[in-house]
Design brief:
49% helix, five-stranded parallel beta sheet, alpha/beta
């Protein structure tokens, strides 16, 4: 069974690369999708395609709508949606993606450090799992696909 996984959330660290690489190393049958992670392209796609806007609100509005076409479609097609909340910025878009995935009944996995536990308690409550590391995400996917526990924890 091929698992479709959408990797949503912060775009300033390499957490996606770690998950994809470790999943490949583990031989997991997973297809990963993600939002556009080039910050400038994501911000400017609307005006680049539909024309300039003198008002920053409308500039952002055009971009957000075009990005939503991609995001909504990929979340709807996903079996599992992983949403990462990073340290540096407030990821309002990530919270929105988590809510959208939860509303669709998607298997939702949240990734964040311990310092976000209180702020994200409602988001965490909607998730089927909350992880603190990309490696834990890979182990979750491995368990879902194979039913196997990590070697160090398995009970032979």
């Amino acid at each position: 069974m091929t698992l479709q996984v959408y990797l949503s959330g912060e775009i300033h660290t390499n957490w996606r690369d770690v998950i994809v690489q470790k999943a490949e190393e583990t031989g997991l049958d997973v297809v990963f999708q993600a939002p556009v992670t080039n910050h400038a392209a994501s911000d400017d796609c609307g005006v680049a395609i539909l024309g300039a806007e003198p008002d920053k609100f409308w500039h952002d509005h055009k971009g957000a709508k075009l990005n939503a076409i991609r995001t909504r479609g990929l979340i709807e097609k996903a079996d599992v949606v992983v949403v990462c909340f990073g340290e540096k910025y407030k990821q309002w878009n990530a919270a929105f993606d988590a809510g959208y995935a939860a509303a669709l009944g998607k298997s939702l996995v949240i990734l964040h450090g311990a310092d976000h536990q209180h702020a994200l308690k409602e988001v965490d409550a909607a998730a089927l799992a909350v992880a603190e590391t990309p490696e834990q995400i890979v182990e979750i996917l491995r368990y879902v696909l194979t039913g196997k526990l990590p070697a160090a924890r398995s009970q032979a």
